[in-house]
User: Fold these one by one.
Assistant:
Number 1:
Amino acid sequence: MTTLSDPHVVMIRPVTPTPPEGCAECLQLGTPWVHLRLCLTCGHVGCCDSSPLKHARQHAATIGHPIVESYEPGEDWRWCYVDENYV
């Protein structure tokens, strides 16, 4: 479900999850995560805001890719970190 009123939806691209097995930074650091988020601009897989290090939000803030979708099995939603809203 995409809300066309969010101006950031133009940044959504076809992506390949990188890395597909989990949060890129947590895997490097050996730290745990709670849930995973997929950047819909570049495919970065990061951990959610409930995770200790919140790498998906950090990626959005530092790289400027605002929209993620859940990378959890059975979940189908997207979130914009800039507008703090579902898209």
Number 2:
Amino acid sequence: MNFWETITGSDLTREWKAFEARAEALPAGYRAAWEQIKGHLSLRADFTGRNLMPILDNALGLLEETAADGRSIHEVLGDDIGGFCAALAGGEGARSYRDRWREQLNRNVARKLDRMGG
């Protein structure tokens, strides 16, 4: 990856297209699970989403292996795809960008109130 690709995000676009092409080759139930995984993991992305690329690659690889082995999605992911994604992204209770923004907002409001004497 060169500097220009990093700045423009073209490397991410290329990777994303490769993920989607791989996902299209999956059976329908696996594609549905992929869509759910993307939705759950997107909540844990940083500003660019670059932090999720290796996680998404591994999740898609797991789906591909599971499909090739003839195992069911339920057998591998269980009933809680959201919990599975939380574990992939850093464990149960891992903070999302919303959590970080909420904490920052609360700190800023508390500082303003302290300055106002309230």
